[in-house]
Amino acid sequence: MLSSDCDEAYKAWGIAEGAMDLYKFRIGQTVHLQASHLGQILGGLCTVTGQLPEHDGEREYRVKLTCESHERVVQESQLSKPPSRN
């Protein structure tokens, strides 16, 4: 997709120009997903597969945990940079 095509798609989705640059995590990045306190989500390393528009005032992402075959939609507050290995 060309840049102008992306701009048109963002406008169609109601995403402000340049908003995709404001995401904390990029597609393809390995991040840490916090486990849910109800046990519905296993925590662990996952890969960001998509950046989604805001929902209820918070950015969302599609992610895929390394131990699961499906993707999940999670809020930015559920993600963090993985701990560094020393």
What is the name of the CATH class?
A: Mainly Beta
Strand coverage percent: 25-35%
CATH topology: SH3 type barrels
Q: Please give the alpha-carbon distance between the first and last residues.
A: 39 Å
Counting helices, strands and paired strands, the structural category is mainly beta
How many domains is the backbone divided into? Answer: 1
Strand sequence of the main sheet, in spatial order?
Answer: 4-3-2-1-5
| C-alpha geometry | globular
Order of helices and strands: HEEEEE
Name of the CATH architecture: Roll
Describe the main β-sheet briefly: 5 strands, antiparallel
Rounded to an integer in angstroms, the radius of gyration calculated over CA atoms is: 14 Å
Return the average pLDDT rounded to an integer. 80
Give a count of the beta strands, DSSP E runs of length 2 or more: 5
Number of helices: 1
Helix content: 10-25%
